[in-house]
Design brief:
single chain, 207 residues, mainly alpha, Leucine-rich Repeat Variant, 68% helix, 0% strand
């Protein structure tokens, strides 16, 4: 049976539960044929099916990234799609596989960051997560940390505490001073006291 018939839209469901359940079924059965069918249908004429397919794919990726890793090029191609749902879904999938396929992700960083810059908050969040994952790899550390610093300079103050907290795990001694400088320079921009305190805590941790 085609996996398309099990998608939320095929079942006339407006919630995501069928897509989440399908992802779990595919993981348990290691159904690579089903994954390929989902990838093929990312270009289905029905945008609801496209949206369901990317949802199932990144749900699989969040639990078993190796199952979707071979489709990195397909996810990268979606970053230029006119359907915003596909763009941020593809960025979520790329975030899932960034540690598995770092070379491909690194090679396409310009494309990824352009999409993050133009995209929704979710797209930006996963773009930053990708940089953090690359920064954990010694082969891409310097470039990724430099780009991560750039993101911290311009990101929305709402997202800054989360980005700063997530980045602490990869910041090397060489970059600590620069990170502290950037975070300190942005403290006055943060309106919410609770978020300001979170950034101050990161600064203190790095100092």
């Amino acid at each position: 049976m085609s996996v398309i018939s099990k998608l939320a839209s095929s079942l006339n469901r407006k919630d995501e539960v069928p897509n989440q359940e399908l992802a779990q079924q595919i993981i348990k059965s290691n159904n690579k044929k089903a994954i390929k069918e989902l990838v093929v249908n990312l270009s289905n004429r029905d945008t609801k099916i496209q949206s369901d397919c990317i949802k199932v794919l990144y749900e699989i990726g969040e639990h078993e990234a190796s199952l979707i890793a071979e489709y990195d090029e397909e996810f990268l191609a979606l970053l230029e799609n006119k359907n915003n749902r596909l763009v941020w879904g593809a960025m979520t999938a790329l975030d899932c596989i960034a540690s598995i396929n770092p070379e491909t992700i690194y090679k396409n960083l310009a494309k990824i960051l352009i999409a993050a810059d133009k995209g929704s908050v979710i797209t930006k969040d996963h773009g930053v997560n990708i940089l953090i994952k690359l920064a954990a790899n010694k082969n891409f550390m310097n470039k990724a940390l430099t780009l991560l610093l750039d993101q911290l300079k311009i990101c929305a103050t709402n997202q800054l505490p989360m980005y700063a907290e997530n980045a602490t795990t990869v910041i090397t001694d060489k970059y600590k001073k620069d990170f502290i400088k950037v975070l300190t320079s942005r403290l006055d921009d943060i309106e919410k006291e609770s978020k300001q305190k979170r950034v101050q805590k990161v600064i203190k941790k790095l100092s």
